[in-house]
Design a protein that fits this description.
The complex is a heterodimer of chains A (112) and B (114).
Chain A (H helix, E strand, L loop, with lengths): L3 E2 L4 E5 L4 E7 L6 E7 L6 E7 L4 E4 L2 E6 L4 E6 L8 E8 L7 E2 L3 E6 L1
Parallel strand pairs in A: 2-11
Antiparallel strand pairs in A: 1-3, 3-8, 4-5, 4-9, 6-7, 7-8, 9-10, 9-11
Chain B lengths: L3 E4 L2 E4 L5 E7 L5 E8 L3 E8 L6 E2 L6 E5 L5 E5 L8 E8 L9 E2 L3 E5 L1
Parallel strand pairs in B: 2-11
Antiparallel strand pairs in B: 1-3, 3-8, 4-5, 4-9, 5-6, 7-8, 9-10, 9-11
Classes of the chains: A mainly beta (112), B mainly beta (114).
């Protein structure tokens, strides 16, 4: 039973345009959410986070939006760059559980 | 500052062999984790250790055991390897006082069981 779902396995975007990666979750107890980026042959690296008390968090070109009523979060990358080409994982956790549940990932390709 | 170090980076095992994957962190983190990554399955939690002296099962613990040797080290053991355990294994750690900062991951161990 997949509690965190990324329904788009892949996404291609032109350089300079916006990339939107989506993530849905089923567990209403989740209150922390993260996005990770992963390049081939490397471990995932932390990108941006949001807690359930917020609906938006920005860090440079990256913005995460959280819609608690829809149990949906999204990552916006503006403008997209070729170096953003990677697999992106969303992850969710409930405070006090000390663990994150990950989605299946979306492979983003930014075309020059 | 090495972060999270995993050894070995690559390993080929025969079915039924045993091995231990090693993980060490130098960030004084309290919590450590083992995940496996499989195509189309994302990252799935095998075992974790919220603090030194404790370990708990994750989503897919069958066929594995763990040891939190001290605050720095968390090892994953396959007692009798099976082809279904062919995967990329990632160790991660977190300070543990709040989850919002996210894990630090190692670079992974690619394991093939033939």
């Amino acid at each position: 039973d997949q509690q965190v779902k990324q329904n788009s396995p892949s996404l291609s975007v032109q350089e300079g345009r916006i990339s939107i990666l989506n993530c849905d979750y089923t567990n209403s107890m989740f209150d922390y959410f993260l996005w990770y980026k992963k390049y081939p042959a490397e471990g995932p690296t932390f990108l941006i986070s949001i807690s359930s008390i917020k609906d938006k968090n920005e860090d440079g070109r990256f913005t995460v939006f959280l819609n608690k009523s829809a149990k949906h979060l999204s990552l916006h990358i503006v403008p997209s760059q070729p170096g953003d080409s990677a697999v992106y994982f969303c992850a969710a956790s409930t405070s006090g559980t000390y663990k994150y549940i990950f989605g299946t990932g979306t492979r983003l390709k930014v075309l020059a | 500052n090495a972060g999270v170090t995993q050894t070995p980076k690559f390993q080929v095992l025969k079915t039924g062999q045993s091995m231990t994957l090693q993980c060490a962190q130098d960030m004084n983190h309290n919590s450590m984790y083992w995940y496996r990554q499989d195509p189309g399955m994302g990252l799935r939690l095998i075992y974790y250790s919220a603090s030194e002296g404790t370990t708990d099962k994750g989503e897919v613990p069958n066929g594995y055991n763990v040891s939190r040797l001290n605050k720095r080290e968390f090892s994953l053991r396959l007692e009798s390897a099976a082809p279904s355990q062919t995967s990329v294994y990632f160790c991660a750690s977190i300070l543990g006082q709040g989850l919002i900062e996210g894990y630090t991951f190692g670079s992974g161990t690619r394991l093939t069981v033939v």
